[in-house]
Amino acid sequence: MAKTPKSNLYEDLKRQILTMELDPDADLDEASLSERYGLSRTPVRDIFRRLAGEGYIDIRENRGARVIPMNHSTLRNFFLVAPMIYAAIGRLAVQNFKPAQLSDLKQTQERFRAASQKTDALAMVLENNRFHEIFGEMSGNVYMQPSLGRLLIDHARIGHTFFRPRNEDMRRRLQLAVDHHDGFIAALGAHDEDAVVDLVFEHWELSRENMEMFIAPQGLKADAFVGGPATHILEKSS
């Protein structure tokens, strides 16, 4: 399908939010976006409404649109429920995936692997996000998919430091994430629900400390979000 100015605006805003090119709570200028993409105000507002429905932006009456914020409440809720939702999605994916979706997952993993070898942080963020989006599509559950989509937005934003390794340990952990993706593909192919769920929690634990690195500089009590609810859920599920 050919790209249109409207689809370009939609994809660009999603990408900029996921990769932190647009900061949380940043205002979106309807007029400048209309001019830049050669669109009238109406299609720009249509895109805003679509992105708001998917959890990327917040539309405030008489105050315009802004990138969805991250605050104490949203971060606490994220760490509280993310492992549970990822595990449920994993089980449903094993039960319901279609061969074409598994093929799509494999192709996405190859792009993710290539990006990791080049240390292309922006590509890794997007391909990792797509990898987990496909899990949601595999689940075939209209209740779980929107929840997963919302989680993935903040997972990408909170965990963006993971894809910018600054030392050998971070590079090792990044390679382990690549290996986990291969494990997910193998477990899906074997229809092994328990193996997928075990990997979900290993994968979550891997990125958890990197998320804390992002949170702590913001003056938040990282242990309340990372060492508390998430760890409790991991322990209950192990």
UniProtKB/TrEMBL annotation:
<dbReference type="Pfam" id="PF07729">
    <property type="entry name" value="FCD"/>
</dbReference>
<dbReference type="Pfam" id="PF00392">
    <property type="entry name" value="GntR"/>
</dbReference>
<dbReference type="InterPro" id="IPR000524">
    <property type="entry name" value="Tscrpt_reg_HTH_GntR"/>
</dbReference>
<dbReference type="InterPro" id="IPR011711">
    <property type="entry name" value="GntR_C"/>
</dbReference>
<dbReference type="InterPro" id="IPR036388">
    <property type="entry name" value="WH-like_DNA-bd_sf"/>
</dbReference>
<dbReference type="GO" id="GO:0003677">
    <property type="term" value="F:DNA binding"/>
</dbReference>
<keyword id="KW-0238">DNA-binding</keyword>
<dbReference type="GO" id="GO:0003700">
    <property type="term" value="F:DNA-binding transcription factor activity"/>
</dbReference>
<protein>
    <submittedName>
        <fullName>GntR family transcriptional regulator</fullName>
    </submittedName>
</protein>
<dbReference type="InterPro" id="IPR036390">
    <property type="entry name" value="WH_DNA-bd_sf"/>
</dbReference>
<keyword id="KW-0805">Transcription regulation</keyword>
<keyword id="KW-0804">Transcription</keyword>
<feature type="domain" description="HTH gntR-type">
    <location>
        <begin position="3"/>
        <end position="70"/>
    </location>
</feature>
<dbReference type="InterPro" id="IPR008920">
    <property type="entry name" value="TF_FadR/GntR_C"/>
</dbReference>
